[in-house]
Every structure is written in structure tokens, then in C-alpha cells.
């Protein structure tokens, strides 16, 4: 099921410096979604992958609020910023990723955001392997999301992710068409420090 | 290169509830490492995968401090807590994952920990696909790490990860042998909220 090769539309934009599984470069964050429905078993496989992410003391601080009915999608749209709504309104599924900041075992769970990021990474890769596109957004009103979705203060709010099948670039508003391509990364040597900072 | 099936030693402990790529359950965090050296191209493929993680505005806040010489490993051992040193001292590679809390584009980069967690998730999966074990630790003295490794205040300190080839369970101290198995996860239905919290 997993990727066996780098997709042709990716090869133009991304070149791995070391031998890695193609799944890591094949995943990117397009903005154009079709209105094709995501079957429930496919959608839940995405969260199932996140479930198996590692976390400090296996606390599993991640939680996902899921919107896939018109009513729930409208609730989400009430706190997504207009710039993102121009494309995200087409996505058939939205999910808000949150994390519990405390735990009975440890009190304050310092790595809750870091661990939840790992779960998000797993989710994004499994989605890509199932042929789904995911696009995470920071552009939403977090306090409004907390209010609309009734999120307790003890949970941190991270990202809204649009999930669905990728659409055509030409279906996007013109100003977004030129951004509709996989993004590059800085060289690895600027990220790794040998021995000390 | 990626996983084609769930490994027999995993099947005993983990069962996915939805159809996911086996790579997500095959990855776990053993404590027993052999002293077999990790070839440089294999080691760097692990960081290369992390490089392609998604991040807010493509800021890529993650950084990795790498220890693979005796001198550098000793520096790391100076801040790892004794309980972890009983097993982590055998790992041929240690890396400290940190993240830059600010960015020229945005000032304070709120999702730095979350985004760096995604990079850690990518790293852990690529390691597993290359036959490497990774074990992340929170059990170390962060302030001492900051001092020993000369880490600026503007960087958050997340986890030390032991990297190497998995050893035999019987090579561990007796009290750790019983914990040397893949951990379970809570049911997905306790993690997903439909529509609102």
C-alpha cells in the first residue's frame, strides 16, 4: 500500500538528499480539493495511523474534533479566516487537532504539543498513502474555535486540517494557482549540529 | 523499501482497527541496542525524512544536535538521567531535538513544538523503515543540556532520541526486560469527537 516511487508531479519540485522512502516527499499540502466524499473506512484509517504515534509515557495527548456533515463544517467555517475559506470551504472533511495539557500520571504534560505533532505527522502520511490530500491551517480564530466547539481550557488548540481528494489547480482562485505546488526545504546541513549547537 | 506487512513480533501486541500501512505499528521504542555502528548514509536518511515534514509557513523550526563520537556521546550522557543511562549508554547515536521559538517572518512562532513533533514522527518512521530502532526520552536535565550543548534561549528543548540497531531483550537489566515490548494505545473512539468536544 505504501509509496513505491516519487510521483512525477513531485519530482519537478523536490529532490531528497539521502535515500528515503518516497512517502515523505510525496506528501504535500495542496489547496485545491474536489467535493468527492471520503469513505468512512478511508477517513478513519487516517486517524488510526495517528493513534500509533509515540508519546511521552504513552500519554497520547492528541484529540481530534471531526467535521464532515454540513452542520459541523459550518461550525468550523465560522472560525476559519476568510483567506483560507476561499479554498478550504471545498474540503469535505475538516478536523481540529487539540492536545490535553495535563495528565493524571504527571500533572502538567510538558511535551503535549510535540507529541501531538508526531501524531499529526503520522496522520498526514497515512492520508497521502490513501490518496488523500491534507492541508493544515494556523489561520483561524483559536478563541472562537474554543467557544464554538466547547473545548475545555485544559486543551491546547493546534491546527485545522482540511482533508479530501486533490482537485485541479485551475479550480483555485487565480492568486492561489501560482502557490499550488510542493514546497522546498532548507538544506539538511543547516538543521543538524554535530556535538553541540 | 517501506513496510509491506506487520512484523510477527508486533502482531502479538498491536492490532490496527482500520486498514493502515504496517509502518505505523511496526515502529516502536525498544530499550535494547546493539553496539553495531549506523552507517552515515543510513543515519542521515533518518534526518532527511524529518526535513520534509510540514510546518506552519514552511518555517521548519526543528534542529537536531547529533552525538556519534565517544566525546560527543559523553557530553550527552552528562545530562541523561541515570534510569535511562542503564540502557541508553549502549546506543551508538544520540540526538537532541530542539526547535526555534521565533522566526523573522512571524516573530513568535507559536506552533514550533507541534511542527517539530511532526518532524520527529517522520524521523522515527524512516528509521524504522531502515531497520533502526529509536527511543525518545524526556528523562534528562534540560537546563544542563542547554548549558553543555550551548543552546541559545530562543530554542525549546524537546527530547533526546537514542538511535541504533535493536538488541536482545536479555541484554537488558532484569527490571527492564519485562517492559521490552510494543505498547498499546487507547481506542480511537476516545480520541475523536464528532462535531464538537
UniProtKB/TrEMBL annotation, chains A, B:
> Any idea which UniProt keywords this protein has?
Oxidoreductase
Q: What range(s) does the Nitroreductase domain occupy?
A: 26-78, 83-165
Segments carrying the region annotation (Disordered) are 171-197
Q: Name one GO molecular function term.
A: oxidoreductase activity
SUPFAM superfamilies xrefs: FMN-dependent nitroreductase-like
Signal peptide, first to last residue? none
Q: Which family does it belong to?
A: Belongs to the nitroreductase family.
What name goes with this protein? Nitroreductase
Organism of origin: Sediminibacillus halophilus
